[in-house]
Design brief:
193 residues; globular; binds protoporphyrin IX containing FE; alpha+beta; 49% helix; 4-stranded mixed β-sheet; 4 strands; 7 helices
Length: 193
Amino acid sequence: MADEAKPIEKDTSENGAVADVLAELLTSPINVILLVICLVLIYKIFSSRNRSKPVVKPEIPKLKKRDFYLNELRQFDGTGEHGRILMAVNGKVFDVTRGKRFYGPGGPYGVFAGRDASRGLATFSLTPDVLKDDIDDLSDLNSMQMESVREWEMQFTEKYDYVGKLLKAGESPTEYSDIDDETSTDANKSKND
Ligand code: HEM
């Protein structure tokens, strides 16, 4: 008899633990806000995934390797006729058009389109005001945040096409040769395989 009663006791304590976690989550206003933000982002990610499936648009041509000033980058926020989306991370410009469902207009991370996203990524913030209008040297970020920027940079290098450098005011653009372009095309080919 005593043996049969045991599983019931365990069940009750597990339910109690779940109830405790839920109570903890819902009693703090910050937790409730974070939970709502997470749910909204998950909804946006998955709804844009479903929406983008039936639209089969021809891919836009690969961008020739070139450097960008901040104001030039702003033109590539996905609202242009070409729909191209560029984004800078840690001084490097990536073509993230392939990730339109994330960065396209109305996407969960659309705030980063055409911008230097480094500070937003480092501080895990999607608030538009966080991103500076002038060049951002990130010098006030702590070592953990800088590490996070480097990790994002690695993730973007693996997933998206590297286009060129983000230029500071007064810096001259690099003159890339066709060979540079071919090398980056080869790297990107293996990315798509
Ligand atoms: C609060 C809750 C959050 C949830 C639940 C969430 C969820 C996700 C998920 C599920 C993915 C992967 C989507 C996929 O590959 O299909 C993702 C990717 C990503 N998230 Fe979040 N996210 C959250 C917050 C944030 C914040 C605050 C930032 C801003 C720094 C952020 C930036 C990104 C970026 C840049 C990607 C990569 C998109 C890509 O592959 O290009 N996320 N997120």
